[in-house]
Amino acid sequence: MFLMCPWKKCLVTIRRKINSRIGIPRLREAILLVKLHPMKIKISYAHKTVWTGLVTAVLVLITACTSPAPEPVAIVETATPTTAPTATAVPSCDPFEETAVTPPSSVSNYSYQILNSYPHDPNAFTQGLLFGDDVLYESTGRYPSSLRRVDLASGEPQQLINLEDQYFGEGLVLWQDKLIQLTWQNRVAFVYDKESFEQLDTWEYETEGWGITHNGRCLIMSDGSATLTFRDPETFAAVGRITVQDQNGPVQRLNELEYINGEVWANIWQTNRIVRIDPATGQVVGSIDFTGLLDPATLTQPADVLNGIAYDEMNGRLFITGKLWPTLFEIELVPEEGS
Predict the structure, then answer these.
(1) DSSP 303-325
(2) Is residue 328 within 8 Å of residue 120, measured between CB atoms?
(3) Which of 76, 101, 142, 246 satisfies CB 3.0 to 4.6 Å to 284 for a cystine?
(4) Same-domain check for residues 268 and 322
(5) Nearest 5°: phi and psi at 169?
(6) What pTM was computed for the model?
């Protein structure tokens, strides 16, 4: 029983009880009296008081030391609930019917200003170009065609795979964690893991493949005509089409594509022109003339046409290059007077 007693607590309790009843000096007197005459004590009034105090002290001791120890108070730690991150829902790519739209009455015209220039592989026949994860992704044509991740500053490929010899690479788009690469006349698209370049799937389509981009809901594809085809990014099924028109009518030979601030930008094959397209109507809302962008004096081997648009959405940077060009340019637009 006594082992259950917290002794420091007992002593404090006893001291308080004795002080309140008889005082310490009388307790000492009682203890001394018991030691000297344990069998011959006459209980006088005073001694009775002392003995009463001594008995009281003993009872207090017994009470303090035999009382059950208080139950420890359990401290319950309440875990703060954590909310698992939820994936951002991607708006569906809904089917639509093309509506007849008249050509725009006028189109704004732009020139450009060069902000920076970067090395570009002069042997890369650029067919698709995009910027993501602080690097460039590029699809090249001819044989063998390739898919590559390119360091912007050096122009050197950090990762590269070649397509099989029968495939001519074309446009390229980054959709979530996948890269989708078109082929020209093979009518097949390859789907890759963007990190490893492991091929995950193939999709077939009914036209030639030229350029491809996306608007956050649908893939948007060109085929060398004036038509842009909208496709479901999960199945590659066509869900709708628009015809691209400027003030002169349909704009043919739409090639490499990029989606920039709500517009589709398209290279026009075999020209120095890029058009800005309203994807809701197909109307051209701007035309950019890149004549003179590549200085022939800088060439050590023949170069081909302007082709390749990449947009750094995070920093608002716009990159332009061409097939077999030794340079990739960062540019900004300059509105032409009167447009």
Answers:
(1) ---EEEEEEETTTTEEEEEETT-
(2) yes
(3) 246
(4) yes
(5) -70, 150
(6) 0.75
